[in-house]
Each structure stands twice: as structure tokens, then as C-alpha cells.
Design goal:
2 strands; mainly alpha; 4 helices; two-stranded antiparallel ribbon
């Protein structure tokens, strides 16, 4: 069963990494937990550099209301 779960996780990772659409995953505090290569290209920044940063550091909304729109 553990092998099946591990294989499923690897498959999900490969799918996300090969999408041409940008994918960003945030935790409940809106800190970045994952960014696929398409998102790295879109935002022109590496995931390693942005890991754990708040959403506001990537996504800018007028009047500082980023959290209200996410």
C-alpha cells in the first residue's frame, strides 16, 4: 500500500512539473509551499528562493488587499 501511495505522489509531482500552466500552492497562512516550473518562468523567480514567502511577495493587488482576493 505504501508503494502505491508513493507512486501516486510521484505521478502527481510529474504532472504538475510538466504542465504549461503555472501552479502555485499555498498553506493556510498563504505562504508558498510549491511552485511548478511554469510558475517560475511566469514570475521569473526560483521556487527555492520563494519557498515559505507570503503570497504578497508574488501577487500584488492594489491597495494591499491580496489576502482578501486569495
Amino acid at each position: 500500500m505504501k508503494d502505491m501511495i508513493h507512486t501516486t505522489e510521484i505521478s502527481r509531482q510529474r504532472i504538475l512539473e510538466n504542465l504549461s500552466s503555472a501552479v502555485l500552492l499555498f498553506d493556510r497562512w498563504l505562504c508558498l509551499q510549491y511552485m511548478n516550473p511554469a510558475a517560475e518562468m511566469l514570475f521569473e523567480v526560483s521556487f527555492r528562493h520563494m519557498l515559505g514567502n507570503p503570497a504578497e511577495s508574488l501577487i500584488q493587488c492594489p491597495e494591499g488587499v491580496t489576502r482578501q482576493h486569495l
